[in-house]
């Protein structure tokens, strides 16, 4: 079924931020050229004398807000640097002028004197505490927590792995963008922030003024645009202070330097205890998370929802240490911290198999959860059949027959903590001859609007062209969070089911007044016993709102999808090239199969890319070297293989319609399967090298 939410975008009528009319000024940020430096003075007089409006941290009367559960960047530090710049590209001043090019010229006139400081370049630097990112803390360790279940066994066998997952970037197709303008006693914001309806409250708490948010199409996000909140605070305050509308669109280099939304950078030390058959008896996992110039990272703790992944391991210890460095702060990026955990668990399974000389698939088979529901110490796994997915993958003789000295095949199995508990509301109305689904979030591109419209069409038994959707401003929307945490299948289904039932009740009462009491409903029409009928579109305007609430049984996640991947990688022309990737995935019941496949393909492509291509890189002084997509290593379509998707549903008994979230689970399992495949090539060529980091260095075979 063709998606109804993309036609206007394809025709250039997508409703992106730049499609909105703007009569006002434009903002440009003056940013620190240093990763770490004292700000000695800021002289904006030349720019102001030339007509600029300038906002600095000392003019900026925002309040900090403590860490929240959300994995994205928050407001625990001020969004404009005041006394010290803590990462390269950190905004120090906002320059506002009549057009963007004039603002860029005037920004160069702002004279900022810096005293460069020693950079905290990485986790090792941070732990030395020779230089402090936040001097007032007295340490670079900003969070630490130990969680234990059961008791670590004493053998009989054990191995220890040291692993590293590199820093990455969300790189949405459209970068951050916003228009802010004063209205009444507060400010109205038009932006592509993720979760705009929910985040309005945080902005109001920070600035102490009323805020209205109008969502637009995002041009992609997958967590990264949660971090736009820090820029919205600055832009909203500037519009309020200077009483003028302001427009800002982030450049690609700005995004790479200073988005506040880096993906996780994590170092692992894992001890695994197992018996002679490869059955794991305990996992002792220590991680060190590089949060950049931030006081915390929720990404380090989301893996608590999948500590043992798809495996029945009950003795677990998770020791997490989050450190601050002079890098772009961490935010939320597709999975918000679970992909590296999945990758690390699969590295453990591979290492155990190699240690015992057992087939890697067999070790997984012996450890996979085989009975559902499964109550782990940390979560309630609602449904699934990971062993069945593994068997389907292993039956692919056509794939395994491709193996030769230059071609490796790898497998991996995973789950992900989809659908964090919470609420989501929609407004369902009939007006102007249409049924309209009102959503409290902007479109990211996953097709959530299409899903909502399709569900309304099915549940009301009317043609899809009777139904459309609209994005609601924050003051008209019911409580809404929107996409995040693979939650939309569950929460959209729940909200739409409730809203449709309430709407049908109201329409029945209206129709009964028109046709009489003995009526029936079919395909959008009420019919009376004497043959009269009336369309639901002819009963006048109607409007209902419904908010769906769901709570987890254990922990904070509700439904668990499972996946098994097969990756085929070939070594040629001095590099590892993925040539085929097969996914078997359990999304619960499927609302729209094509949308599900699109999500799986997109997440799989990211996992492949993180394993082979993408990474932030720095010089010896901590200066960022990846200032463009070419430097960063973002792949082209030619670098991603054919991705074959098979949907194998196990309906969830915990959710409306038995659905599960699947936006994030494909990432880590794809990276793990690719790593397994590359190691297969190394083994075939007689190498004993074990891959302990991503992206994988192509020089391993030179």
Structure description:
The strands form 8 sheets. A 7-stranded mixed beta sheet has the order 3-5-1-12-9-10-11. The relative contact order is 0.13. The protein is built from 16 helices and 31 strands. The longest helix is centred in the last third of the chain and has 28 residues, at 488-515. Helix 5 (196-207) crosses helix 6. 26% of the residues lie in helices and 27% in strands. The protein is globular. By secondary structure, the chain is α+β, with helices and mostly antiparallel strands.
Secondary structure: elements and pairs:
Blueprint: H1 7-10, E1 25-31, E2 37-43, H2 45-49, E3 53-56, E4 84-85, E5 91-97, H3 100-107, E6 111-116, H4 123-128, E7 141-149, E8 157-165, E9 177-183, E10 186-191, H5 196-207, E11 211-215, H6 229-242, E12 246-249, H7 252-258, E13 266-274, E14 280-290, E15 316-323, H8 338-356, H9 360-367, E16 374-375, E17 380-381, H10 386-394, H11 397-400, E18 407-415, E19 418-420, E20 422-431, E21 434-439, H12 448-460, E22 467-471, H13 488-515, E23 519-522, E24 525-528, E25 533-535, E26 542-550, E27 557-559, E28 562-572, E29 575-586, H14 593-612, H15 629-632, E30 642-647, H16 665-684, E31 693-694
Parallel strand pairs: 1-12, 8-31, 10-11, 14-15, 21-22, 29-30
Antiparallel strand pairs: 1-5, 2-4, 2-6, 3-5, 7-15, 8-13, 9-10, 9-12, 13-14, 16-17, 18-28, 19-27, 20-21, 20-26, 23-24, 24-25, 28-29
Helix pairs in contact: 5-6, 8-9, 8-16, 12-13, 14-16
The major sheet is characterized as:
7 strands, mixed
Kindly state the percentage of residues in helix. Answer: 25-40%
Mean of pLDDT: 94
Low-confidence stretches: none
Radius of gyration: 26 Å
